[in-house]
Each structure stands twice: as C-alpha cells, then as structure tokens.
Amino acid sequence: MQLPLALVLDAEAPVRVRVRDALKDAGLDVADVATPQQAFDALRTRSVAVVLAGIASPKDVSLELVERITRLRPTAVVGILEGNGDPEGRSPASVDAFDVLPRHPRPKCVTEFGRRALAQHRMLDELRRLRDEVGTAREPRIAGRSAPAERLRREIADLTASRGPVLFSGEPGSGRSYAARCLLAAMGAGEPPRTLKGMEGLPRALPEGDVFLDSIEKLPWGDQERLAQHLASGRGSGRILMSAGPDPERAAGEARLHPGIAGAPGLTTVRIAPLHERPEDVPPLVRAFIESLRRLNGLPPIGVEPEALAALSAYRWPGNVRELRDAVETAMVLAPDGIVRQSDLPAFVRGGVGPAEPGVRADRPFRTAKRKVVDAFERSYLADLLRRHEGNVTGAAEHAGMLRSALQRLLRKHDLRSVDFRA
Hints:
The protein is α/β, with parallel strands linked by helices. The chain contains 17 helices and twelve strands. A five-stranded parallel beta sheet has the order 2-1-3-4-5, sandwiched between helices. It has a five-stranded parallel beta sheet with strand order 7-8-9-6-10, covered by helices on one side. Helix 5 (147-159) packs across helix 6 and helix 11 packs across helix 13.
C-alpha cells in the first residue's frame, strides 16, 4: 500500500534529513526539496498530503508560500519551521498554517506533527469527496460526444426499466461510480447509491435502498461468495450496482472474480471505455469539470483557451477521467485571470503536444528543457509499462530491465500507483 506523501522544503540539507526521518515514523512517505520552485513542481505532479516548510531565509522562502501551496493542493496540510520570519514583518503564526514548529524541533515533535497533519488531511480529503458527491449527485449526466459516450447514455436509459443488478466494467478512474449515479438519477432515485467498502452492512442495506460495491474483484473471496449468493437469491427491494476491471470474464476465469457474480441471474454488464479511446470527449469533459468546480467554489466564469484544450486532448490519460479532473482543478488554481491556458496545465500534459518533440522549447534553458522532456518520457513509458503488465511491478521491472526498487522510486516520482493499472 502506497503511503501518503509529505513534502519537506528547506534550504539546509541537515534540517531536511532530520525532519524527513521523523516524518517517516509518522507513517508518511517523504520527499524533500531545497527551493520553492522545486516544491511547486512537486505539488503540480504529485499528490502531496503534508508540507513542512522552513522559513530559514526571507530571500528564499516567503510566508506567502503557504497560501500558494493551499491554493495548489487544497487538502494538503501545511506546517512551518520557524526561522527569521517574513520580510514584510509578519510572524508565521499570522499565516493560515496548521502548526508552527521550532527551527530545530525534536524528532518526537515532528513525528507528532506528522500524525496530526495526516489525520487532518484525511478529514479534508473526505470532506472534499463528500462535497463533490453532493455537487454531482444533483443532475449527473454523461458528458461527451463520442460513440462510446452515446452508447453509455443509451444503455443507462434502457436500464431504467428494470431492477436487476448492474456491473460497470472499466479501468480505474474511468467513471464507473459516476455512471452508477447517472443510472440512479435516470430512475428517479432521490438519493445516490450507498457505497460499501465491503460486504459489511449489505444484508441490512438491501431492503433500505440501492447499494454500490466498488472494485468487487478486490473483495476477499468469502465476501464475493456471499455477494454471489445475494445476487442468486434476488432478495431485497434495492438494486445492486457494482464495478469491476475492464474484463470481468477474464477475472472470473483467473479466479479473481467469483463466477456466481459474473454469471448472476439478470446481471447486465456495462463497459466504460477508457479515456484514451475517446479523445473527442475531453473538451466537453473539461468544460463540465470547470463549470462544476466553479459552482462548487463560488467562482466567477472561467474560460479555457484552444491550445489548452488541444494539449488536454492529446494526452493519453492513464488515470482516465479522474486524472483529467485533477489536472483541470490544478489548472484552475493556477489560472490568474479566469482563463485556463496551456501554461497552467501540469507539466506532464504540456509535454504531450507541440510541433517538435514533446516539451522541446528553445525559449528556456537547456537543462530545464531537457528535464521536462525526460519527465514526459518517463511518465508516458511507466504508464504504458504498468498498463501492459496490469499493475504487476515485479513483471514490469523485469520487462524494463530495472531493479524493482528503482522502478518503485520512479513510480513515486511521477505519482503513479500500480493498483490503478490492475485489471
């Protein structure tokens, strides 16, 4: 299981090492950087849960950094290592930071900060998820103009006339749970389906309403057997909606999915196409995400330039619709004047288009341009490698001729999770 990531920012290497080791004891994976620009690059490309920034030199780090971090990663929890203060005379305590630690804190103090900050991040992340569910549950609809999107709309419309179980199959992040909400909305259900992490509560929930079981092939075999029995019995007035990987029949043949689920009476399987198979859906999805996020946060109208849409459409999106939404939200935070431009997009997206090789621009220093090209290549290669090996890191490392530990370091660098590529 991948640990949440903490980012340590300080100009002094000994401070970074001391703080990094203490944060690891709090159950965090830790990356450290020396400059604010390196911190912003990491925040744009990696899912950071906790940030601990040193204010050792006013020339290097301003307290405004905290405000920029929280705009870029709203659920990241920021702490400050107090130093010489801010050049404008403000104290660290006057900034909206989670906590302020001494310049050279005891390791125990840093570990305790890490535990409290991680708990705060998880609470903020859950609140954000619930807020998004409430916002999208009002009038959920399938956005897109591709043939797979049109087929999905037709299938959902046809399913409103029945009450049988439905299995939404597709890659992680492709919109399986959202399609389930669209089906419930089309049926006239006033509440979104109850999402269950396992079989606990299923017998109690069935008579009360509809339920949604995500990634059922990852459930323990005993839970899958119980679910198969429920599906065969037809008990309960609620509808059972489920999601699984892109090939449920293959999963059943490999004993990863119970055959009683894949072959349940009255089961309808609905395939959700990955985003790279329907690039023409990217522009309408981007506009839908911008409008949804704008309304949720009470923002004025936000536009998007054609070059930004072209860059977003050219990228393959290994993380599917979920990754696209995260990229759009990041770009909205960075957009200074209500227009999302190509320069506001994450670096791995910007490297996907252009008349020359990905990311090659002569208007920047050679090392900067080279680093962007290498980063774009690494992320694209790793995503395709994991997809080919269905998230098997050992097999992927052998195929690439790399040590498993070296591959894992690269995956962490590019915020790629092997679990997202498992069938």
